[in-house]
Amino acid sequence: MEPASRVEPHFQWGLLVAREDFIAEQPRLLRKLLRGYLKGAQYCTAHPEETKTMVCEYMPGYEPATVEQALTRTLPIWNTTGLIDMDGLAVAAETMSTLGAIPRQLKPEALVDLRGLPQDASNGI
After folding, report:
1. Do residues 109 and 90 lie in contact, with contact meaning Cβ atoms separated by under 8 Å?
2. What pLDDT shows up at residue 93?
3. Which of 24, 29, 56, 88 has its CA 20 to 30 A from that of 119?
4. Percent of the chain whose pLDDT exceeds 70
5. Whole-model pTM?
6. Residue 115 and residue 61: Cα distance in Å, rounded?
């Protein structure tokens, strides 16, 4: 056993979800929320000790050493650009299919809804 990021550096673990009606009715608010999320991720990666303290405070059930290990492994690969990691999403879909978690491999394009993002999402949020 080893961290998935060591085996496959492009494995998309996290995702953000918005309801269909929210995307259609609140695109400006959606962009603001996504920018806030991105700023938070950037802050956490720039301030790992403060992030560790915050996680330990809000998740007291985890030992500080466990939090330290998790952050050491994951902070360097957090998406702080706002770009959509389609390669990582493809790897995740393939892995989930191989493990039997989903009945068939899904195309990443079918999983991503770019409505509410700027026209050129390749530039980030």
Report:
1. no
2. 82
3. 88
4. 79
5. 0.69
6. 38
